[in-house]
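User: structure tokens for Membrane protein insertase YidC, please.
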Amino acid sequence: MLDFVYWPISAILWFWHKVFSVPFGSGSGISWVLAIVFLTFTIRVLLVKPMLNQMRSSMKMQALQPQLAEVKERWKGDQTKIMEETRRINKEAGVNPIAGCLPVLVQMPVFIGLFHVLRSFNRTGSGPGQLGLSIEENRQLANYIFSPTDVQSFLDARLFGVPISSYIKMPGDMYEAFQPVDFTRMNIVLVAVPLIILTAVATHFNAKMSITRQRERIASGKQKSMASAQMQSQMEMMNKMMVWFFPAIIVFTGIFWHIGLLCYMGANNLWTFFQQRWIFAKLDREEEAEEEAKKEAKRATAPKPGVRPENPKKAPKKKRRAAKQGNLSIDQVAGGDGKTDAAAGETGNPVDGGDSGTRSPKKNGGKRK
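Assistant: Done. Predicted tokens:
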């Protein structure tokens, strides 16, 4: 059903295994673990740009929270109108909430695909998803892009004395696929438990790093807090889930995770730690550059020291009337020394209402004051 995921995952894993087989040998546990680690890095490299865009989109959405809260308050009870206005605001701001979910949506199929590919190296069990093959049949059957020789190499590889695809709750009858059976369940526990704990702790601290930065930005005024108490409560709940609930899930479900899958999660958390630091620093630099550009624009448009800003409403009536009739600006009319009036006369645009382009004498006995 998910062959479109399983085949690419197995191809990337096969490529890196061939690379590391050169220095370490094809049957070495190190070459298989490094292949899994670099499979993780390959996927994460492809997701760097989407992740960066997702973080930028998240910052824009946080800045839009007051507007979105106002929309909900204004159109309370009219969900259709709220959705229309929300889409309009997001479009004007260049925000795509769906695109922000791309990195998470991509990583989940990768996790599932790697879990399936690693499990499919040993198909001797009779449980869910197993084929119930004999030991000989299993060793002679390909696993997606991996040839029977690659399957045998994987089954014979060991990490700290246990198979790469073993896990704590693996049924005892599946041990026979890994010949020779020179390990026990306790050996698997001694390798898997430290990896589970390290993965859970790394997940905890990566989430805490992100939440700490968010709180620091709110405290410094760079980011606005949630507009309503309900939204603030929801955010706090999500933060607690990221910091405590997700690591707890890893601890309680880790007994079903293969050693290779735990290596994948460890490499994924290691990448996340350094990537988050790099992305946060890059976003901070972009934000500082944007603020500096805004300040520079204000300085460029501000009046020079000692010069009073022009206020068209305070201009003399004569100059305002001349500007209106002669299609001139107030600054042109205020050019001084009568030059503007002369220019208006030459172009045939009367200044005081005349028809010939010359100035008419004012009404006071035909004499000028």
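User: Anything notable?

Assistant: The longest helix spans residues 259-301.
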